[in-house]
Amino acid sequence: MQIGIPKEIKDNEYRVSMAPGGVRQLCEAGHRVVVETQAGAGSGFSDADYRAAGADIVPDAAAAWSAGLVVKVKEPLPPEYAFLRPDLILFTYLHLAAERELTLAMMKKGVTGIAYETVELPDGQLPLLKPMSEVAGRLAVQKGAHYLEKLNGGSGKLIGGVAGVEPARVTIIGGGIVGASAARIALGMGAEVTVLDRNIERLRHLEEVLHERLITRSADPLAVEESVAEADLLIGAVLVKGARTPRVVTRAMVARMAGGSVVIDVSVDQGGCVETIRPTKHSDPVYFVEGVLHYGVTNMPGAVPRTSTIALSNATLPYVARLAADGVPASLSKNADLAKGLNTWRGTVTYGAVGEAFGIEVKPFG
Predict the structure, then answer these.
(1) Which residues span the domain enclosing 222?
(2) Residue 365 resides in a domain
(3) N or C end of the chain: which has fewer CB within 10 A?
(4) β-sheet with 233-236: strand ranges across
(5) Domain check: are 105 and 213 in the same one?
(6) What burial class does residue 222 get, using C-beta atoms within 10 Å of its C-beta: 0-12 exposed, 13-18 middle, 19+ buried?
(7) What is the CATH classification number for the domain harbouring 111?
(8) Is 124 a domain residue?
């Protein structure tokens, strides 16, 4: 099969969907891989690196998108809709439950859309979301510490404090991969950290692995309200698989936060769990609501593309190899985890949460 790797066009998105090492394995398996020129430059991979791995370098996006299987990082943007077509297999992060226009475009064009974020193992783990969740959770604390600095718009608090001065308070809504990664970094930096989640067993696990300095609370409305009001840095880390994120933090709660506090909602690409969050981009990442600084960049891991690209490529490669070797029907029939990644197929929506988000009839694959 011919596999296309186009250059990402989202604002300041420097990741590429496949590192040269992964490309080499696909080429050695007998597939032709076409890479748009300079697609890997932002991650530190040159066209020469891809040629050495066996890929063909093509001059433009149209040539890369002409492949039967296109592997990307982020969802197609409107300028890319013209490349969508019925015989295209698109494998990328889609987040369709927050993207009505894209959903309708993919249905109209009859694209086979397989979303990284809904590929699901029998135990409920999301293997292709996990690596970027780890990056985003760690990065959220790093960004939060940056924006708490006075010269960057924050309250002027050092996240770890110093002797005789209390540290910043970090509140994390959600104890999954993002929340756990954020908590680990925040604790390492010396912050006072509270994680809220509805799953008590998850909170017990976090206490065991992150030790006694971590504060855990059940995410009932009163606990969320109290913990948000106390936060110097609030990190939204709520995930509902493939669905729009519920609004857990209201504007009224944000209004009770101290001026110069910081909100970073990692779930913004699924709609966000904070009422006052809206999508932003790396070139214009922050804004203020109620005197609180908000960071809503939808492709946070793009800020550290070298790490992110290699982590993503490692995770997606086995699935790309299956799709390239067997095609869609056979791959999905053989692999239940990959089958759960299917979101659109022959002009229909196949994933329940996406259909529910927009009132569109869902027609399961098969």
Answers:
(1) 132-303
(2) no
(3) C
(4) 215-218, 192-197, 169-173, 233-236, 262-265, 292-295, 286-289
(5) no
(6) exposed
(7) 3.40.50.720
(8) no
* pLDDT score of 212 more than 80: no
Q: Indicate which residues carry an active-site annotation.
A: 95
Beta pairing class for 342-345 and 348-349? antiparallel
Which residues, 6+ apart, have CB-to-CB distance to 14 below 8 Å? 8, 42, 43, 302, 303, 305
Same domain, 286 and 314: no
- Do residues 161 and 278 both lie within one domain? yes
Give the model's pLDDT for residue 243. 79
Residue 324, in any domain of the structure: yes
8 A C-beta contact, residue 296 and residue 255: no
Residues 102 and 143 in one domain: no
Q: What is the total count of domains within the chain?
A: 2
**Bridge partners of residue 166, in order along the sequence:** none
Same structural domain for residues 15 and 82? yes
Give me the amino acid identity at 173. Answer: I
- Rounded CA gap, 263 and 280, in Å? 13
Do residue 299 and residue 310 come from a single domain? Answer: no
pLDDT in tens, 41-64: 999 999 999 999 999 999 999 999
140 and 284, same domain (yes or no)? yes
Residue 79: is it exposed, middle or buried by C-beta count within 10 angstroms (0-12/13-18/19+)?
A: exposed
Residue 92: closest CA among 3, 24, 182 = 3
**pLDDT tens across 295-321, in order?**
999 999 999 999 999 999 999 999 999
pLDDT for 154 equals 97
| Spatial CB neighbours of 325, under 8 Å, sequence gap ≥ 6 | 1, 29, 331
First-to-last alpha carbon distance for the chain, in angstroms, is 23
Do 232 and 310 share a domain, yes or no?
Answer: no
In the numeric block, which tokens belong to residue 255?
A: 């209004």
φ/ψ of 51, rounded to 5, equals -60, -40
Within-domain flag for 125: no
Residue whose C-alpha is closest to residue 232's, from 291, 287, 310, 154: 154
